[in-house]
Design brief:
Helix content is 15%, strand content 23%. The N and C termini lie far apart (94 Å).
Protein backbone atom coordinates (compact mmCIF):
# COMPACT_ATOMS: atom_id res chain seq x y z
CA UNK A 1 0.00 0.00 0.00
CA UNK A 2 1.34 3.42 -0.97
CA UNK A 3 0.36 6.82 0.39
CA UNK A 4 1.06 8.41 -3.01
CA UNK A 5 -1.95 9.51 -5.03
CA UNK A 6 -2.44 8.21 -8.57
CA UNK A 7 -0.98 11.31 -10.25
CA UNK A 8 2.21 11.25 -8.15
CA UNK A 9 2.55 7.50 -8.65
CA UNK A 10 2.38 7.90 -12.42
CA UNK A 11 5.12 10.52 -12.26
CA UNK A 12 7.44 8.63 -9.94
CA UNK A 13 6.79 5.01 -10.84
CA UNK A 14 8.13 5.02 -14.39
CA UNK A 15 9.14 1.37 -14.35
CA UNK A 16 12.68 2.37 -15.21
CA UNK A 17 15.49 0.54 -13.44
CA UNK A 18 17.93 2.86 -11.70
CA UNK A 19 21.62 2.12 -11.19
CA UNK A 20 22.36 3.70 -7.83
CA UNK A 21 26.10 3.25 -8.44
CA UNK A 22 26.07 5.43 -11.56
CA UNK A 23 27.17 9.07 -11.44
CA UNK A 24 23.77 10.12 -12.80
CA UNK A 25 21.90 8.80 -9.77
CA UNK A 26 24.62 9.02 -7.12
CA UNK A 27 22.81 11.99 -5.54
CA UNK A 28 20.16 9.52 -4.32
CA UNK A 29 22.81 8.03 -2.03
CA UNK A 30 21.96 4.41 -2.75
CA UNK A 31 18.86 2.26 -2.43
CA UNK A 32 17.02 1.65 0.81
CA UNK A 33 19.23 -0.17 3.30
CA UNK A 34 22.48 1.02 1.73
CA UNK A 35 22.51 4.20 3.78
CA UNK A 36 23.14 4.27 7.53
CA UNK A 37 20.33 6.84 7.88
CA UNK A 38 17.67 4.44 6.56
CA UNK A 39 15.10 3.11 9.00
CA UNK A 40 11.65 1.52 9.10
CA UNK A 41 8.70 2.89 11.06
CA UNK A 42 5.87 0.54 12.02
CA UNK A 43 2.28 1.72 12.54
CA UNK A 44 0.00 -0.66 14.43
CA UNK A 45 -3.80 -0.50 14.01
CA UNK A 46 -6.70 -2.62 15.24
CA UNK A 47 -8.86 -4.62 12.83
CA UNK A 48 -10.94 -1.52 12.08
CA UNK A 49 -7.72 0.31 11.19
CA UNK A 50 -7.92 2.59 14.21
CA UNK A 51 -4.39 3.72 15.00
CA UNK A 52 -2.90 2.30 18.22
CA UNK A 53 0.78 3.21 18.26
CA UNK A 54 3.93 3.52 16.18
CA UNK A 55 7.60 2.81 16.69
CA UNK A 56 10.95 2.11 15.05
CA UNK A 57 11.71 -1.39 13.79
CA UNK A 58 14.98 -2.96 14.97
CA UNK A 59 17.39 -3.43 12.07
CA UNK A 60 17.59 -7.14 12.90
CA UNK A 61 13.86 -7.53 12.25
CA UNK A 62 13.99 -6.94 8.51
CA UNK A 63 16.14 -8.20 5.66
CA UNK A 64 17.05 -6.40 2.44
CA UNK A 65 16.58 -8.80 -0.48
CA UNK A 66 17.89 -7.61 -3.84
CA UNK A 67 15.14 -9.46 -5.71
CA UNK A 68 12.07 -9.38 -3.47
CA UNK A 69 12.80 -6.14 -1.62
CA UNK A 70 12.44 -5.74 2.14
CA UNK A 71 11.36 -8.79 4.15
CA UNK A 72 9.86 -7.83 7.51
CA UNK A 73 9.39 -10.13 10.51
CA UNK A 74 5.96 -8.78 11.42
CA UNK A 75 5.26 -11.40 14.10
CA UNK A 76 8.52 -10.62 15.90
CA UNK A 77 7.91 -6.89 15.58
CA UNK A 78 4.42 -7.14 17.10
CA UNK A 79 5.64 -9.28 20.00
CA UNK A 80 8.40 -6.76 20.80
CA UNK A 81 5.70 -4.10 21.10
CA UNK A 82 3.72 -6.32 23.45
CA UNK A 83 1.13 -7.67 21.01
CA UNK A 84 1.32 -11.46 21.25
CA UNK A 85 -2.39 -12.13 20.71
CA UNK A 86 -5.13 -10.73 18.50
CA UNK A 87 -5.47 -9.47 14.94
CA UNK A 88 -3.89 -6.21 13.82
CA UNK A 89 -3.38 -4.15 10.69
CA UNK A 90 0.30 -3.30 10.36
CA UNK A 91 1.69 -0.63 8.03
CA UNK A 92 5.29 0.37 7.41
CA UNK A 93 7.04 3.56 6.38
CA UNK A 94 10.52 3.46 4.88
CA UNK A 95 12.44 6.59 5.73
CA UNK A 96 15.88 8.12 5.30
CA UNK A 97 16.94 10.72 7.83
CA UNK A 98 17.95 14.06 6.31
CA UNK A 99 17.90 16.15 9.48
CA UNK A 100 17.04 15.40 13.07
CA UNK A 101 16.29 11.93 14.36
CA UNK A 102 13.85 9.81 16.31
CA UNK A 103 16.65 9.43 18.89
CA UNK A 104 16.80 12.02 21.65
CA UNK A 105 19.77 14.17 22.66
CA UNK A 106 21.34 14.78 26.05
CA UNK A 107 22.37 18.38 26.78
CA UNK A 108 24.03 20.03 29.77
CA UNK A 109 23.03 23.21 31.58
CA UNK A 110 24.50 25.29 28.73
CA UNK A 111 22.45 23.38 26.11
CA UNK A 112 25.63 21.76 24.77
CA UNK A 113 25.05 18.21 23.52
CA UNK A 114 26.65 15.44 25.56
CA UNK A 115 27.65 12.00 24.27
CA UNK A 116 29.76 10.60 27.12
CA UNK A 117 28.95 8.23 29.97
CA UNK A 118 25.99 9.06 32.20
CA UNK A 119 23.97 7.53 35.04
CA UNK A 120 20.46 8.00 36.43
CA UNK A 121 19.95 8.92 40.06
CA UNK A 122 17.24 7.49 42.30
CA UNK A 123 15.25 10.72 41.91
CA UNK A 124 15.29 10.35 38.11
CA UNK A 125 17.96 12.99 37.42
CA UNK A 126 20.44 12.19 34.65
CA UNK A 127 24.05 12.95 35.60
CA UNK A 128 27.37 12.76 33.76
CA UNK A 129 29.83 9.95 34.50
CA UNK A 130 29.46 6.22 35.06
CA UNK A 131 28.89 6.78 38.79
CA UNK A 132 28.01 9.82 40.87
CA UNK A 133 30.62 12.27 42.08
CA UNK A 134 29.46 15.41 43.91
CA UNK A 135 32.45 17.38 42.58
CA UNK A 136 32.42 16.41 38.90
CA UNK A 137 28.97 15.08 37.97
CA UNK A 138 26.79 17.53 36.05
CA UNK A 139 23.05 17.34 35.49
CA UNK A 140 21.82 16.56 32.00
CA UNK A 141 18.42 16.96 30.37
CA UNK A 142 16.72 15.26 27.43
CA UNK A 143 15.79 17.11 24.26
CA UNK A 144 14.09 15.73 21.18
CA UNK A 145 16.34 15.74 18.13
CA UNK A 146 13.74 17.64 16.14
CA UNK A 147 13.01 21.11 14.79
CA UNK A 148 10.18 23.42 15.78
CA UNK A 149 7.33 24.64 13.59
CA UNK A 150 7.58 28.44 13.72
CA UNK A 151 4.96 29.43 11.15
CA UNK A 152 2.37 27.85 8.83
CA UNK A 153 1.47 29.54 5.53
CA UNK A 154 -2.14 30.75 4.99
CA UNK A 155 -2.57 28.05 2.34
CA UNK A 156 -1.35 25.49 4.89
CA UNK A 157 0.97 24.04 2.26
CA UNK A 158 4.25 25.43 3.64
CA UNK A 159 5.96 25.35 7.01
CA UNK A 160 8.71 27.50 8.45
CA UNK A 161 10.82 25.55 10.90
CA UNK A 162 13.52 26.72 13.29
CA UNK A 163 16.17 25.05 15.41
CA UNK A 164 15.96 24.56 19.13
CA UNK A 165 18.55 26.03 21.47
CA UNK A 166 20.93 23.08 21.11
CA UNK A 167 24.67 23.59 20.68
CA UNK A 168 25.51 20.63 18.46
CA UNK A 169 27.31 20.87 15.10
CA UNK A 170 25.50 17.92 13.52
CA UNK A 171 22.06 19.10 14.66
CA UNK A 172 22.58 22.62 13.30
CA UNK A 173 24.43 21.75 10.06
CA UNK A 174 21.77 19.19 9.07
CA UNK A 175 19.14 21.90 9.41
CA UNK A 176 21.00 24.39 7.19
CA UNK A 177 21.90 21.68 4.65
CA UNK A 178 18.21 21.03 4.01
CA UNK A 179 17.99 24.23 1.99
CA UNK A 180 21.40 24.27 0.35
CA UNK A 181 22.87 22.61 -2.70
CA UNK A 182 26.35 22.82 -1.15
CA UNK A 183 26.60 20.78 2.04
CA UNK A 184 28.75 21.74 5.03
CA UNK A 185 30.23 18.61 6.63
CA UNK A 186 32.26 18.92 9.82
CA UNK A 187 34.86 16.48 11.07
CA UNK A 188 34.19 14.27 14.07
CA UNK A 189 34.26 16.11 17.39
CA UNK A 190 37.13 14.70 19.46
CA UNK A 191 37.11 17.25 22.28
CA UNK A 192 35.22 15.02 24.69
CA UNK A 193 37.42 11.97 24.04
CA UNK A 194 40.61 13.99 24.55
CA UNK A 195 42.03 13.01 21.14
CA UNK A 196 43.82 15.42 18.84
CA UNK A 197 41.53 17.09 16.26
CA UNK A 198 41.33 15.22 12.97
CA UNK A 199 42.72 17.09 9.96
CA UNK A 200 43.02 16.71 6.20
CA UNK A 201 46.08 14.75 5.07
CA UNK A 202 47.63 14.32 1.64
CA UNK A 203 49.22 11.04 0.63
CA UNK A 204 51.03 9.61 -2.37
CA UNK A 205 53.52 6.94 -3.26
CA UNK A 206 55.78 6.47 -0.18
CA UNK A 207 59.25 7.87 -0.79
CA UNK A 208 58.42 9.26 -4.23
CA UNK A 209 59.23 12.90 -5.06
CA UNK A 210 55.88 13.69 -6.64
CA UNK A 211 52.66 15.52 -5.96
CA UNK A 212 50.15 13.93 -3.59
CA UNK A 213 47.87 11.56 -5.45
CA UNK A 214 45.31 11.03 -2.70
CA UNK A 215 43.59 13.04 -0.01
CA UNK A 216 42.26 11.66 3.27
CA UNK A 217 39.33 13.56 4.77
CA UNK A 218 38.23 13.34 8.43
CA UNK A 219 34.56 13.34 7.40
CA UNK A 220 32.04 10.62 6.57
CA UNK A 221 31.76 10.01 2.83
CA UNK A 222 28.63 8.82 1.05
CA UNK A 223 27.79 7.66 -2.45
CA UNK A 224 25.95 10.89 -3.26
CA UNK A 225 29.35 12.65 -3.25
CA UNK A 226 30.31 10.82 -6.47
CA UNK A 227 30.78 13.30 -9.30
CA UNK A 228 30.81 16.25 -6.92
CA UNK A 229 33.52 18.64 -5.78
CA UNK A 230 35.30 19.20 -2.48
CA UNK A 231 36.49 22.74 -1.74
CA UNK A 232 39.34 23.29 0.72
CA UNK A 233 39.11 26.73 2.29
CA UNK A 234 42.35 28.76 2.39
CA UNK A 235 44.29 26.09 0.45
CA UNK A 236 47.24 27.17 -1.69
CA UNK A 237 50.15 25.69 -3.62
CA UNK A 238 53.81 26.66 -3.81
CA UNK A 239 56.73 25.53 -5.98
CA UNK A 240 59.05 22.79 -4.75
CA UNK A 241 62.59 22.83 -6.12
CA UNK A 242 64.07 19.42 -6.87
CA UNK A 243 67.60 20.43 -7.94
CA UNK A 244 70.20 17.71 -7.52
CA UNK A 245 72.24 18.07 -4.37
CA UNK A 246 71.52 20.05 -1.25
CA UNK A 247 68.25 20.73 0.47
CA UNK A 248 65.61 21.96 -2.03
CA UNK A 249 63.67 23.78 0.69
CA UNK A 250 66.82 25.60 1.85
CA UNK A 251 67.64 26.55 -1.75
CA UNK A 252 64.15 27.96 -2.17
CA UNK A 253 64.40 29.98 1.06
CA UNK A 254 67.84 31.34 0.07
CA UNK A 255 66.49 32.49 -3.29
CA UNK A 256 63.58 34.22 -1.56
CA UNK A 257 65.96 36.08 0.76
CA UNK A 258 68.16 37.21 -2.17
CA UNK A 259 65.10 38.36 -4.07
CA UNK A 260 63.89 40.35 -1.05
CA UNK A 261 67.32 42.01 -0.62
CA UNK A 262 67.45 42.96 -4.29
CA UNK A 263 63.96 44.44 -4.11
CA UNK A 264 64.85 46.45 -1.00
CA UNK A 265 68.08 47.78 -2.62
CA UNK A 266 66.50 48.70 -5.95
CA UNK A 267 67.96 45.75 -7.82
CA UNK A 268 71.53 44.54 -8.39
CA UNK A 269 74.27 47.08 -9.13
CA UNK A 270 77.31 46.72 -11.36
CA UNK A 271 80.86 47.44 -10.12
Amino acid sequence: MSRLNEIDSNILLTGKDIDFNSTEYSYLDGGFGENLNDYVEVLIHDEEENFIESGIVDKGDYIIDGIVGVKLKTGTILRKFGYDRGRYVVKYNFFRKLAGSYENLLVDENQISFSGDYHIMGNGKIMTGESHNDDTSRELSIKENKYLIHEISPSRTELRIIVQNIADNKYQSEFFNLQRGIRLITSEDTTQSGEDPKTVSFTGVPGAQSDSTEIELPIPTTTNMVGGFIYLKNAYEYPVLTAAGGDPIKKYEDEQRRSNRDAAGGGSRGG
